């Protein structure tokens, strides 16, 4: 099992900033996740004009789903400078809808001091559970 530090290094190795035009860029953010199957998946952001594209987290999750897994154990994401980055609201929602078990997924929010948070702490009131018992 990789340590968070090893996951961060892997994510940093995936950074590959490319500007494709005035409004287009890729590889400015990179993510690595550990699936419930024990495998690791990486992804980078793809931001294109007119709001087309997606975050590194969803890119990594897509690679995991392509491999037949839907549940995330741990997640790290880094910005262009290699610093940990929390997931945006869209990615939080995406992961919760992908599998309710992802509520237990851990995210590295800060490296020093190390701060780790579960998705259910970042999204304490999922819309699909409103009005239901936990
Ligand atoms: Zn996002």
Number of strands: 7
Distance between the termini: 31 Å
What is the string of SSEs from the N terminus onward? HEEEEHEHEEH
Structural class: alpha+beta
Known CATH architecture: 3-Layer(aba) Sandwich
- Tell me the number of structural domains: 1
Description of the structure:
By secondary structure, this protein is α+β, with helices and mostly antiparallel strands. The protein has a single domain, classed as Cytidine Deaminase, domain 2 (3-Layer(aba) Sandwich), CATH 3.40.140. It is 27% helix and 29% strand. The chain has four helices and seven strands, in the order αββββαβαββα. It has helices at 4-14, 56-66, 89-98, 119-122; strands at residues 18-19, 25-35, 40-47, 53-54, 72-78, 106-110, 115-118. Strands 1, 2, 3, 4, 5, 6 and 7 form a seven-stranded mixed β-sheet that branches. Strand 2 and strand 3 form a beta hairpin. The longest helix is centred in the first third of the chain and has 11 residues, at 4-14. The protein is globular and about 45 Å long. The model has no long low-confidence stretch (mean pLDDT 94). The chain binds zinc ion (ZN). Zinc ion binds at residues 55, 57, 87-88, 90-91. Zinc ion (ZN) binds at residues 55, 57, 87-88, 90-91.
List keywords for this structure.
single chain; alpha+beta; 134 residues; binds zinc ion; 4 helices; globular; Cytidine Deaminase, domain 2; seven-stranded mixed β-sheet
SSE layout:
Blueprint: H1 4-14, E1 18-19, E2 25-35, E3 40-47, E4 53-54, H2 56-66, E5 72-78, H3 89-98, E6 106-110, E7 115-118, H4 119-122
Parallel strand pairs: 5-6
Antiparallel strand pairs: 1-2, 2-3, 2-5, 3-4, 6-7
The structure holds zinc ion.
The site of zinc ion has 6 residues, from helix 3.
């Amino acid at each position: 099992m990789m340590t968070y530090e090893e996951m961060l290094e892997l994510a940093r190795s995936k950074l590959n900033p490319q500007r494709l035009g005035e409004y287009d860029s890729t590889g400015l953010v990179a993510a690595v996740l550990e699936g419930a199957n024990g495998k690791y998946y990486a992804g980078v952001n793809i931001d294109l004009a007119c709001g087309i594209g997606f975050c590194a987290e969803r890119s990594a999750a897509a690679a995991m789903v392509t491999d037949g897994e839907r549940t995330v154990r741990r997640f790290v994401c880094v910005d262009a400078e290699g610093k940990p980055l929390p997931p945006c609201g869209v990615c939080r929602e995406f992961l919760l809808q992908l599998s309710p078990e992802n509520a237990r997924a851990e995210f590295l929010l800060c490296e020093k001091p190390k701060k780790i948070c579960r998705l259910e702490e970042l999204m304490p009131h999922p819309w699909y559970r409103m009005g239901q018992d936990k």
